Each structure stands twice: as structure tokens, then as C-alpha cells.
Amino acid sequence: MKKTIYGILIALFIVLFTCTSSFAATVNKGNATMTLVEDNICNITFGQYGEFEKKMIECNTTEKYVDIRLTARNNAEQLEDKKADVILLIDSSRSMSTNEVIINGERMTRKEAVLQSAQTLVDKLLAANPNIQIGIVEFATSTETDDEGYTIEGTDLDAKTVTSELTNDADVITDALNTVSTDVMGARTNLEVGLDAAYSLLQTNTDADTEKYIITLTDAIPNTARGVTMDPYTEATRVPTKNKIVELGKAGVNLISMLIEMSDSEIEISTEDPKPTYREVAEEIFGTSTNPTSGDVYYVSDEEVEDTVTNQIYASLVQEQYILENIVIKDYFPQNIIDNFTYAQLTESNIGDVTAEVNTEDNSITWTIPSLGPGEEATFTYRISLNNEFDGEIVGINLPTNENVEITYEENGTPGFAENDDCPIIALDVLPTKDIPQTGIYTGLYIAGGVAIMAIIGYASYRFVKKNRF
User: Fold this and answer.
1) What b/e sequence results for 152-190 when a residue is b if at least 16 CB atoms lie within 10 Å of its CB, and e otherwise?
2) Which residues pair with 390 in a beta bridge?
3) In which residue ranges of the chain is CATH 2.60.40.1170 found?
4) Residue 407, Ramachandran bin (φ over 0: left; ψ between -120 and 50: alpha; else beta)
């Protein structure tokens, strides 16, 4: 009989434990309270001027949801387009028209390659900055010759100002470049006079706030100068040309010189002993790339002409804005938030795209922003709402609303990475008091269980007494 009673009691306890455990697994949203434990703000600096902020904008403890706003901004200042006057000083000597090159599989003269690059440079400059004005000057030598076919001496006729004035009219500049392409000048190069003509054109604009540039595009070193008969690359030509470069630099002119195919071969017609190379004479006049006489100096091959003119020289002329590109922001959620809360996007991003749902593979949402220019700000908001029924295991513990934020981006073409795990933290409790255990055992179950046990024990005792009396 005792074994029977014990068996009944054990079975009853198992039933009661199972019932109370099943009640402990879930809690109804209406029986819960929610409080804000920490109002943390996630701030991330990325790149030189990039800033990210994740901030709670509402914690509704009645409806039990949290609204969060994400913001990404570029704090760089918007730069004003600088005013600049640019002279393209183009070599029209014989070597430019007779040397053939192959660029991107196409055969052309060196002069054609230079003029194509110059046209691209002009198009990019005018598109980037309407405050830039451009002039075209070409140089070589005049056609006057002595009995041996040499130019009598360098004169002002060795340079031609192709544009009558500085202009930002694309058609006028294109016409000037076409004129240079068909012009026939002498075989020699009188850079000194070319620089003088370019400077004279710059002087037609007297605005002190305007930056002034002369860009020399040539494949030769000077072999004549003002008042100098054709010179076999001696100091008679080097000195006045170099002095002119120094003089213009001191006058505030930004000089950019691109020298094409400066050979390390000896100059055969040189009267010096030992004979210098073309590169050595060029460096004596213009300096080296790391130690120029004035301004920037580029020693390039034919294949490097296009990139040098259209990218490197272009970058020197245009004030580039600070832009952050290919920004990807991943916001990761803890598993207990995923299991017990619902994610919903409240506002769309004004820049870029945000995934509509949480990626369950890594519990994240992804915000992709193609680029942020100076002063631009991108933002959107989302809500996490407590489910109508949730796991009782999250009652009474702190709940970070997210796990981590990671940002990848490009700054001037260089990849970068940043992250931060700060976030708002909430906590849940169960009504009516905080003393109710997290297991979810209710007083009614205790009472019912106690009554049942007492009834069984009473019945068993009655049976036992009755049996032993007889």
C-alpha cells in the first residue's frame, strides 16, 4: 500500500513539474514590463572625416519597442572651385610630327598622342571647374634659315599664341588644338620664347586670386633661344631657358613640365667632351622629378603620356573634394533579440539601400552607401518590438539591443575598417512584482498541487486505518 501511495505522489510531482515548466517556457507580452537600463550611443569615426552614429530615439516601455536611428556623415567642408588660368604650351617641332607611337593598339604621331591627351584634360577641367580658363600656345622655331638650312637665330616668331585670350569655351579651345595639329613650324625648339608667350597670355587676367599655370608638353630639350643661332645643346641655350623657368617660378607661376622620352643616349652633335646625354641636359635645365628647377617635372615614355596628362596633371589643377566611397555598414543583433523581438524599418535611407529583413545567417542588416560627399548625411531608422509571446529566459537579464556595428569603406581609393559594440540596453520583468521567479511558477498551481496532494494523503490514510481496524 505504501508503494502505491509513493508512486501516486511521484507521478503527481512529475505532472506538476511538467506543467509548471511548460508555463515557464513563454511569457505573454501583456504580463511583462520593460525598462531602459543604459542609453548608450554607438559612435564610430571612419576615415579622416567620416562619422557614424547609432542612437536610440525612443524607448516605449508601454508598447515595449525601441526605435533606433543610424546616421553616417561626411564632415569635410565643401570646397569652393578655385580660380585658375592654364596655358598649354605645346611643342610643334619636327620630332613631334615625325616620331610614330602605338597607343592602345593605335598607330599615331607623338604630336597626335599629346593633343588627344590635352583634349581630354581640357574636357575634364571644364567639367570639374567652371572657374578655370585655358589658353593654347605652341613653340618650335620660325622658318627663316641661313645658307646651311639652320635658323638664323631665335626670335619671338618661334612661338604662336593660338587662342587670342583665355577662355572656358570648349569649342574655342578644341579649335585651337586642331590648329596646332595642322601647323607646320621649324625643326628646332625655342622653349624660352614659348614660356615668354605663355606668360604674356597669363598676364591678360590681372585677378590676384587666380592661380596661374603653364604646362609644357615636349619631346625635346631646347636647342635655340632668343638671339641664339641653332645651338648643339650647349650653355648658350641651357642658361637662358633655365633662367626663364626660375624667373617665372619667382613670379608666382606654377610650372608643370612633361618631357617625353628623354634618352640616356649621348648627344652626337654636342661639342662638349665628354658628350652629355639628352637626359642629363634636360635635368640641368628642368631639374629632376624629386628636385625640379621650378614646379613639377615628369619624365615619361610615350605610353605614359595619357595617364600623366589626364590624371596626374589634372589632379594638380583641380581641388579634389573629400569623398568617402563604397561604404558598407553591418549592424549585428544578439540571438535573444532575433528570437524575441521583431525588426521593422521605419524610414528608408535617404542615401543608399538597407536590407529589408534581418539576415538570419549572421543576424545582421546591411546598409550600403555608394558615396558621401563633403557635408552629406545619410540616415534611416528602424524599430525592434517585443513579440506577443517571448522566452521567459530573457526575463530579469540585461538585453543589449545589438551585438556590434562594422563599417568598411574607401577613402581616396584606400580601403578602411572600423567597428564599435556600444548600444542601448533594456531589461524585462514580469507583473505583478519583481519577486515572481523567472521560472514562471504561479501561485494557483502551488495551491492546486497542494490540495491534490493533501487529498491523496487523506484518502490513503483513511484506507489504511479502515483496513487495520478489521
Assistant:
1) ebbbeebbbbbbeebbeeeebbeebbeebbeeebbbbbb
2) 27
3) 32-77+323-438
4) beta
Cell of residue 176, nine digits: 585651337
Using left for φ > 0, alpha for ψ between -120 and 50, and beta otherwise, residue 448 falls in alpha
Long-range contacts of 334-339 (CB under 8 A, 24+ apart): 334/363, 334/399, 334/400, 334/402, 334/403, 335/363, 336/391, 336/393, 336/394, 336/399, 337/384, 337/399, 337/400, 337/401, 337/402, 338/363, 339/390, 339/391
Contacts of 469 (CB under 8 A, 6+ apart): none
Q: What is the DSSP string of 184-241?
A: ---SS--HHHHHHHHHHHHTT---TTSEEEEEEEESS----BBTB-S-SSSHHHHHHH
Is 223 within 8 Å of 270 (Cβ atoms)? Answer: no
Q: Which of 132, 35, 121, 53 is nearest to 398 (CA)?
A: 35
Taking the domain 32-77+323-438, which CATH number applies?
2.60.40.1170
Annotate 205-240 with b (16+ C-beta within 10 A) or e (fewer).
Answer: eeeeebbbbbbbbbbbbbbbbbebebbebbeebbeb
Domain limits, CATH 3.40.50.410, in the chain? 84-317
Task: Confirm if 91 and 80 have CB atoms less than 8 A apart.
Answer: no
Asked whether the beta carbons of 157 and 114 are under 8 A apart, the reply is no
276-299 pLDDT tens trace = 999 999 999 999 999 999 999 999
φ, ψ dihedrals at 363, nearest 5°: 55, 50
Reduced DSSP (H G I as helix, E B as strand, rest coil) percent helix, strand, coil of the chain, to 5: 35, 35, 35
What pLDDT, on a 0 to 100 scale, did the predictor assign at position 152? Answer: 64
Instruction: Give the β-pairing of 398-400 and 425-430.
Output: antiparallel
* 3-state SS assignment for residue 430: strand
Select the highest-mean-pLDDT range: 74-83, 237-246, 446-455, 459-468: 237-246
CATH number given to 84-317: 3.40.50.410
Residue 5 has pLDDT above 90, yes or no: no
Q: pLDDT of 443-456, one tens digit each?
A: 444 445 555 555 55
**Which of these, 319, 126, 168, 195, lies nearest to 203 by C-alpha position?**
195
pLDDT of residue 153: 80
- Taking only the tens place, the pLDDT of each residue in 248-278 is 999 999 999 999 999 999 999 888 999 999 9
Distance of CA 299 to the CA centre of its chain: 29
pLDDT at 327: 97
Amino acid in the structure at residue 469 = R
